[in-house]
Amino acid sequence: MSYEPPTPPADLPTDAIDTLDDYSPELLRDVAHYAEELAEYREREDRLAEADEEDEIDERPDDLPDDIPSKATITIKEINDNRYYYWQWRDGEKIRSKYKGPVNPDE
Question: Where in this chain does the record put each DUF6788 domain (predicted)?
Answer without folding.
Answer: 52-106
